[in-house]
Amino acid sequence: xxxxxxxxxxxxxxxxxxxxxxxxxxxxxxxxxxxxxxxxxxxxxxxxxxxxxxxxxxxxxxxxxxxxxxxxxxxxxxxxxxxxxxxxxxxxxxxxxxxxxxxxxxxxxxxxxxxxxxxxxxxxxxxxxxxxxxxxxxxxxxxxxxxxxxxxxxxxxxxxxxxxxxxxxxxxxxxxxxxxxxxxxxxxxxxxxxxxxxxxxxxxxxxxxxxxxxxxxxxxxxxxxxxxxxxxxxxxxxxxxxxxxxxxxxxxxxxxxxxxxxxxx
Length: 265
Hints:
By secondary structure, this protein is of the alpha/beta class.
């Protein structure tokens, strides 16, 4: 017996609807699948002669590439020049450790082009007084206010700012730890900064030691830490790794040695 027209129509309608729904779902799943994350390129620039960044930066580069999905480029000061600054064109993040350089205008222009492009930046220690021919860099870009430092023999203690204790950069960083190198005088900071760490020495007021800033829409992190012994301190390394991925707006991946250890269990 032939099906009645209304029953046949209902069957055909439901069949077409189901096929259409399946096609839409498949399309959404395909379109919504996360593309592999691009490996970020980090350019580390050593431009000072006071704190052995020609040793600590290459070692930190190796540490980063061995433990995290990043590609690093290391550049080093030669006299009053920094060869290779064209690498900034492809950088996703730049980390500066420069001190009192008078860069040739064409090279300084490459740094300014990077900074003004809205890409993130990290400054370590003497980066607050990086350029003799761009002294506004400290306040305008980093949000800082460097004006000398306390004595080299005074041991500074870093403490987490309680108001920022939940900030991602401070995750797994001890609430208090001893630092190396003199304590920089950096207060007051720019108004639009977020204070993360303060440093203190005996009988002196505390000074900002690490903070975040925003420049042209980019995330900026600065810390006055960066002495060679700081790089040996797990607290500092954790702080810096957290800052790297925070400025890149990415979660901090588990270190590769941790993943390998977990797989072995």
